Amino acid sequence: MEKRGNVKRIHHIGVIVADADSVASMLERSLGLQVSQTEEYGHGESKIVFLPIGETAIELIQPLSPNSEAARYLRDNGPGIQHIALEVDELDSAMGRVRLSGAQLQDDLPRQGAGGTQIAFLDPKSFGGFMVELCEVLNDR
Fold it and tell me: Strand ranges (DSSP E) for 1-141?
């Protein structure tokens, strides 16, 4: 199959939850998944827990601050999948391709993501309500 653009794989599926430890524990007990990394993100705004599955991962996102983007999402939508992160070879190049296509980005510039990545979110309005995160791995998690 021909590779188009510079998307390599689904890097992770971002899921907003009220209690990341509880959900991670249930995924460990019921499905045998293992936590590979836990970190605070956004200057203490969120707790991030990664559970790898093959070449991808589930990213549990727990709001720690009531004013964080994750807390607003949880209040407005409840727990669930927030985004799909696509790993790209070069984030700047991928963002340029999105701009040239006419789709909109939420992030004008790449920013630091969790798990040793650099990220940019695409505007869900350009993708029928589907939130896409582009991520470039800067170091392995």
Answer: 7-16, 37-41, 46-53, 56-63, 80-88, 111-112, 117-121, 132-137
Domains, the chain, ranges and CATH?
7-137 (3.10.180.10)
Distance in angstroms (rounded) separating the CA atoms of residues 95 and 79:
28
Residue 136 in contact with residue 92, Cβ under 8 Å?
no
Query: Three-state SS for 18?
Result: coil
Kindly report the number of other CB atoms within 10 A of residue 39's CB atom.
13
Q: What is the pLDDT of residues 45-56, one digit of tens each?
A: 999 999 999 999
Which residues lie closer than 8 Å to 84 by C-beta, 6 or more apart? 10, 13, 14, 130, 131, 132, 133
At 68-83, the pLDDT tens digits run: 999 999 999 999 999 9
**Separation between Cα atoms, residue 80 and residue 17, nearest integer Å:** 7
Widest CA span of the chain, in angstroms? Answer: 45
